[in-house]
Amino acid sequence: MSETKKSNPWWREPWPWILMAGPAAAIVGCVITIGLAVQNFADQPITDGGSKRGLVIERSAAPAAGAPAVEDAS
């Protein structure tokens, strides 16, 4: 008297869902973090002596002591 166990489809088994839960939680956390960063910090000015031109941020060299600061007119 042999009994054969009928296998379930993969989506009815718990292990695929348990294994997919970790990466899915990481993706959701990443999306939330990026959303908060863009919402709260996207329009902050640069205050550490750099200048932003398009997507490039350049750090300006500190002028020597006693020398007048030269500004670029472009």
Task: Tell me what the structure shows.
The chain is an alpha+beta fold. Helix content is 38%, strand content 11%. It contains one helix and two strands, in the order H-E-E. The chain has one helix spanning 14-41; strands spanning 50-53, 56-59. A two-stranded antiparallel ribbon has the order 1-2. The termini are far apart.
Keyword list:
two-stranded antiparallel sheet; 1 helix; alpha+beta; 74 residues
Summarize model confidence as the mean pLDDT: 80
- Provide the β-strand percentage band: 5-15%
Summarize the helix and strand pattern as letters: HEE
Gap from first CA to last CA: 89 Å
The largest sheet is: 2 strands, antiparallel
**Lateral arrangement of strands in the main beta sheet:** 1-2
Approximately how much helix is present in the residues? Answer: 25-40%
**Could you list the spans in which at least 5 consecutive residues all have pLDDT below 50?**
none
Q: Could you say which structural class the secondary elements and strand pairing correspond to?
A: alpha+beta
State the total count of DSSP E strands.
2
What sort of overall outline do the alpha carbons produce when their principal axes are compared? rod-shaped
Estimated radius of gyration:
28 Å
Counted by DSSP, the helix tally is 1
